[in-house]
């Protein structure tokens, strides 16, 4: 189980996109990873991470999804807190529903999961980093670019208009709202 | 054979049941074309934009049954914007003018307005069957019009449509003189219906064999209905919330015992485990069982039921049945042909309900299985290889591992070998949906071995353009290809442009195809419509003239004789 003990704020929101399995201190290795297997994933981390809310996934008809009252119903039209997520270097945007996450940690895990699918660890390696760290930023109601994690979660989800994952170096100059 | 008189040729054509066969014979020579088109009674249009309605009516003046499909399949998962198109009205308008003998209309994934239904009802008072699947745009008012005017209606089948509720009176619009109904399915309606009117209706329709109620129908009402319809073959119950000691429940058990012909059961919303007892008497005769709307039923409850269903051929359940439950299915249901296991917990508290073990168990017990839809949390290559060995008759194989791009948890390898085994072993495979971590290799296998594959669904898979090219060059019978979130770009798209004229359609979303690539395709192939579908709320970002390098979020390509459609909304650009 992932166990990043950062303080509230930046630590929790730091997206690590280095080689899978190298970024966390504690990881119970139930399975010995094949040697040199760079595609290996941290399975436990995957199962515990909040599933990223990719539109249209899993492929279940809305009719069926909406048939279960009392469960979290994804009316994918208007009801969710959908924001776009872009990542520097990734070819296209994703959309996620902030309402699904309980807090910053789950959001980070969800985004990590989502973008890892697209082999972006590879991308970051190619661009000269070795899993250089990324920062999650967001654009708020006023159009300002802020670092994610500074304000209470509830305040964040009501003011966040879109998310942008950028290289750590670029994010350093950003204001923190304190 | 051209020396036979036309009546003989026509008689021979009468033995051809598939529309594909009829399409083929019509291309042999002009004489056969003429005989065929005048004698064709049932017409299937797989893509409503591939041909103009007028042309269909003109070619087949004797048409009695028409089937039309609208939106692409991925519309089911909200990937197609709401007002993209697929309107039924033009078809109904043209049919009203040019095809007065129409008796049956089947529409799938189309937008059907109340206006269209009213026009349909008034233009075709002799309509015998109306089947709407995954449609939207109409309300119970439209249904009222059908009930009122279509005097000899035999079949009204509404499957999984979005229907606006404008009141319960529509059912009362079936006149007292209506006794012809054989099949009535309104399970997808959200609102109440007039229970008394329903009970009277089913009582006087003595040929009623299929009845699927909606959730609003109580157990009490169901008991009364069943008492009047002991010859039912297919039943969809309403809501099953009842105290098992209640009188209504006892009456229901009694009524079920009298229904000796029941072979298919569905519905069961909110059924409590104890109440499953009511159907124990039917189980030995059951061929079709759909419990996929009963989340309260866990593995153990289900297992007691399934043990008695030894004739079962089609089973739809939720994954709460668990691997152990599937093992019981495997040992009890030797005649099983189709299995669907739906997820009960999509948003992941992470309780892994079914895994590869359940699937392997099914495959060892149910070797006749030919159709599978399986949602699970993980899958291994070893399991898929075993499944492929045990079940060689798959025609439809759809596997959905809930976590996109997840590898084999035992080996951390992609699932290329597992799916490869499936396509090698199942020579009649027509439909395949992939998931899990997959490289270009799986597409190499598919292109090489899946000779009869007609429909392929790809998500979060592949490494490069090569993957898509293997499929386009290899699968000779491919008709529909739908791809999302995979790294296929312009080179793959443009590698084999002629292929798309042999297919119904190609869908690509969140891939690497650019606007320039789409334009190039459109320029090379004038008989394809290349639709670029933009996200509506991208308008704040959309430049006036997006560059050709701009990646296209959604692209839908289809062959057509009708040219660019004139009903496309603003956010769709047809190149």
From TrEMBL, chain A:
Transcription found in the keyword field: yes
Localization (cell): Nucleus
Protein name per its UniProtKB record: Auxin-responsive protein
Pfam families: AUX_IAA
Gene Ontology cellular component annotations, sorted alphabetically: nucleus
Superkingdom as given in the UniProt entry: Eukaryota
Swiss-Prot/TrEMBL GO biological process terms: auxin-activated signaling pathway; regulation of DNA-templated transcription
InterPro entries: AUX/IAA_dom (IPR033389), AUX_IAA (IPR003311), PB1-like (IPR053793)
Function: Aux/IAA proteins are short-lived transcriptional factors that function as repressors of early auxin response genes at low auxin concentrations.
Domain annotation PB1: ranges: 80-168
Family, similarity comment: Belongs to the Aux/IAA family.
TrEMBL record, chain B:
Pfam families linked: F-box_5, Transp_inhibit
Residue span, Transport inhibitor response domain: 61-107
Name this polypeptide is given: Transport inhibitor response 1-like protein
Pathway: Protein modification; protein ubiquitination
Domain of life per record: Eukaryota
Keyword list, A-Z: Auxin signaling pathway, Nucleus, Ubl conjugation pathway
An example Gene Ontology CC term for this record: nucleus
Places the protein is found: Nucleus
CDD domains (UniProt xref): F-box_AtTIR1-like
Any one GO biological process: SCF-dependent proteasomal ubiquitin-dependent protein catabolic process
